[in-house]
């Protein structure tokens, strides 16, 4: 049977949703590993990563069940949700790739001031204190501060990695956004194909 047939569409859709399932479990595992080894103490960051992983897992589960059962309603909702996720993810990925250094600095400063736990993680892991400057009366978890040595501000250190991280996140986001639009196309085609084993007079 050629790849445009019913079986091929079903197998491709199942394989795509298995990929999404693995990615979702990987996200949940990374979040659990980070908080288990003390690399991340921010419950907000961990919560967001786990929530994204669970959301992706549920989407993949709906798509997988719809593909196996050739369930029209599940496939329709899966297609709509995947299209909405594609629009959001494609927009965010393009924004990550389009940020210049000044915009990256402003974004990092907003994130720095938004949560104390993430700020403490950065200072401890990168061995720096403060964003652009540090008040000696403030507390800092960096080893340089504990040992009494002068500490560098965190902004230049974070800035070295920010551009690479944003490009990496934007590239990964673009890659998965194209797999999502592929999933929308596969689902649309699969919904309108007749199961050769079903009753020819049945509604599909």
UniProtKB/TrEMBL annotation:
- Organism superkingdom: Eukaryota
| Any one GO BP annotation for this protein | regulation of calcium ion transmembrane transport
Q: Name one GO cellular component term.
A: plasma membrane
Per UniProt, what is one Pfam family of this protein? Tetraspanin
- List, in alphabetical order, the Gene Ontology terms for molecular function in this entry: calcium channel regulator activity
Q: Does the keyword Cell cycle apply?
A: no
| Protein topology in the membrane | Multi-pass membrane protein
Q: Which residue windows are transmembrane per the record?
A: 12-40, 46-68, 75-100, 168-188
Q: Which key words tag this protein in UniProt?
A: Membrane, Transmembrane, Transmembrane helix
> Which compartments is it annotated to reside in?
Membrane
Which InterPro entries does the UniProt record give? Tetraspanin/Peripherin
Answer whether the UniProt record assigns the keyword Transmembrane helix to this protein.
yes
Q: Would you tell me the protein name for this molecule?
A: Tetraspanin 13
């Amino acid at each position: 049977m050629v790849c445009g047939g019913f079986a091929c569409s079903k197998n491709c859709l199942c394989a795509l949703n298995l990929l999404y399932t693995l990615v979702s479990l990987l996200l949940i595992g990374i979040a659990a590993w980070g908080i288990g080894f003390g690399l991340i103490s921010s419950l907000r960051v961990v919560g967001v990563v786990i929530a994204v992983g669970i959301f992706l897992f549920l989407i993949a589960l709906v798509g997988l069940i719809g593909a196996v059962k050739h369930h029209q309603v599940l496939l329709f909702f899966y297609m709509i949700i995947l299209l909405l996720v594609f629009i959001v993810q494609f927009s965010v990925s393009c924004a990550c790739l389009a940020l210049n250094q000044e915009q990256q600095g402003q974004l990092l400063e907003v994130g720095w001031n938004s949560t104390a736990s993430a700020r403490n993680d950065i200072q401890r892991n990168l061995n720096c204190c403060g964003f652009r400057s540090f008040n000696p009366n403030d507390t800092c978890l960096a080893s340089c501060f504990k040992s009494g040595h002068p500490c560098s501000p965190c902004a230049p250190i974070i800035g070295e990695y920010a551009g690479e991280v944003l490009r990496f996140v934007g590239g990964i986001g673009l890659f998965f956004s194209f797999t999502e639009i592929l999933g929308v196309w596969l689902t649309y085609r699969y919904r309108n194909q007749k199961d050769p084993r079903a009753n020819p007079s049945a509604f599909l």
